[in-house]
């Protein structure tokens, strides 16, 4: 079982502790020892567990035909990527379109995705499942909540590089192309443990840094996590009252592309740099020119899948809520019968 909390885990633990204390109090006092109180506490407990987003990891085998070309995307999906200054559309939408275009320009590639939004994580292990890769690319969106780390691109790049290097040691035939896609904005300065080094991507055949955003920048939309208790679907929506992120002085935050950081990163690794608005056709062609010895293989590979279970808890909470409503409705009918 793994947890991907929507809110800080200590808040959930403190809330669950309070629920337990209330349950003990109700049990100890006959006056409050009512089934309705226990039902309400049960509903609250289930919703709190759902906020932890528990998931069950599993491993599946898939067999497919693919090439030895590996496209690895290192993507910035933090709050600033929701700014709409990329030809009047959100940066993350331009990033999604670029990912899709790159994937569709290669024949039967394997694809891997490392991302940073609420946390830094491997969104998709290297796999030949192109449908899943394209679906993930099309459904990228800002995930900016109270438990977000804030953008730390040094950490994102460094952790992705470690994974790619370990992967290349086990798949020596792989021809890897890396695409770092970001607005370059670092909300958190990279610590000493995440210093970038020129040999981070020594195992890749080609690399490019793609920049998003403008020098003028734009205001950062304020998104909140929303859990639909009827369907169990988690989504991120613009805050109903506070439309934009504000700083300590309550001023609306303006995000701009950090082209210097992006160019320095590209120079460090010997990668190409391009702004998304200038088009990515050139880097796609450069990637094709640098990837050699394309082979078509038919082998079995592991895909790690996390089965989300939070919706089960929300459905159970909904069932208890219906039970509570039916009890209240029956009580109301009984009162009317008595009055008659």
Question: Overview of this structure, please?
Answer:
The protein is of the alpha/beta class and 340 residues long. It has 2 domains: 2-56 and 308-339; 69-294, Rossmann fold (3-Layer(aba) Sandwich), CATH 3.40.50. It contains 8 helices and 13 strands. It has helices spanning 9-28, 35-51, 91-104, 130-138, 153-170, 259-269, 281-290, 310-339; strands spanning 2-3, 54-67, 69-76, 110-116, 120-127, 175-182, 206-211, 218-219, 223-227, 234-238, 254-255, 272-275, 296-308. It has a 6-stranded mixed β-sheet, sandwiched between helices. Strands 1-2-13 form a 3-stranded antiparallel β-sheet. A hairpin with a 3-residue loop joins strand 4 and strand 5 (120-127). Helix 1 (9-28) runs antiparallel to helix 2, helix 2 (35-51) runs antiparallel to helix 8 (310-339) and helix 3 (91-104) runs antiparallel to helix 4. The protein is elongated, with a radius of gyration of 25 Å.
Structure at a glance:
With 340 residues, the protein is α/β, with parallel strands linked by helices.
Distance between the termini: 55 Å
Number of domains: 2
Fourth-level CATH superfamily of the largest domain: von Willebrand factor, type A domain
Q: What fraction, in percent, of the residue positions are helical? A: 25-40%
The count of β-strands is 13
Which fold name corresponds to the CATH topology of the largest domain?
Rossmann fold
How many helical stretches? 8
The largest sheet, given as strand count, sense and whether it forms a barrel, is: 6 strands, mixed
Q: Strand content of the residues, in percent?
A: 15-25%
Specify the CATH class of the largest domain.
Answer: Alpha Beta
- The assigned CATH architecture of the largest domain is 3-Layer(aba) Sandwich
**SSE order, as H and E?**
EHHEEHEEHHEEEEEEHEHEH
Average pLDDT score: 82
Low-pLDDT segments, ≥5 res: 145-149
| Quaternary organisation of the protein chains | single chain
Structural class computed from helices and strand pairing: alpha/beta
Strand order of the largest sheet: 5-4-3-6-7-12
The Rg value, from CA coordinates, equals: 25 Å
Shape: elongated
């Amino acid at each position: 079982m793994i947890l991907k909390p929507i809110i800080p885990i200590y808040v959930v633990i403190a809330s669950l502790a309070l629920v337990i204390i209330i349950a003990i109090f109700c049990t100890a006092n006959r006056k409050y020892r009512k089934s309705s109180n226990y039902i309400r506490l049960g509903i609250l407990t289930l919703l709190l567990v759902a906020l932890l987003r528990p998931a069950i990891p599993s491993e599946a085998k898939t067999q497919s035909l693919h090439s030895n070309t590996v496209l690895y995307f290192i993507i910035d999906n933090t709050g600033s990527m929701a700014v709409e200054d990329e030809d009047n559309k959100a940066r993350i939408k331009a990033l999604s379109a670029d990912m899709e275009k790159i994937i569709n320009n290669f024949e039967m590639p394997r694809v891997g995705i490392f991302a940073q939004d609420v946390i830094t994580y491997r969104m998709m292990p290297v796999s030949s499942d192109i449908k899943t890769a394209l679906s993930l690319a099309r459904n990228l969106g800002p995930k900016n909540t109270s438990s977000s780390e804030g953008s730390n691109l040094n950490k994102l790049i460094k952790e992705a590089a470690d994974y790619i290097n370990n992967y290349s040691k086990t798949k020596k035939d792989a021809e890897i192309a890396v695409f770092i896609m970001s607005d370059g904005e670092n909300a958190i300065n990279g610590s000493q443990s995440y210093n970038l080094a020129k040999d981070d991507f020594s195992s890749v055949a080609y690399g490019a840094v793609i920049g998003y955003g403008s020098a003028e920048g734009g205001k950062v939309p304020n998104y909140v996590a929303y859990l639909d208790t009827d369907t169990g679907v988690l989504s991120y929506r613009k805050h109903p009252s506070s439309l934009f992120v504000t700083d300590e002085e309550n001023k609306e935050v303006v995000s701009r592309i950090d082209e210097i950081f992006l160019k320095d990163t590209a120079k460090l690794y010997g990668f190409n740099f391009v702004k998304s608005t200038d088009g990515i056709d050139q880097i796609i062609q450069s990637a094709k020119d640098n990837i050699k010895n394309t082979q078509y293989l038919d082998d079995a590979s592991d895909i790690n899948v996390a089965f989300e279970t939070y919706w089960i808890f929300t459905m159970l909470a909904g069932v208890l809520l219906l039970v509570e409503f039916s009890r209240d409705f029956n009580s109301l009918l009984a009162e009317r019968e008595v009055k008659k």
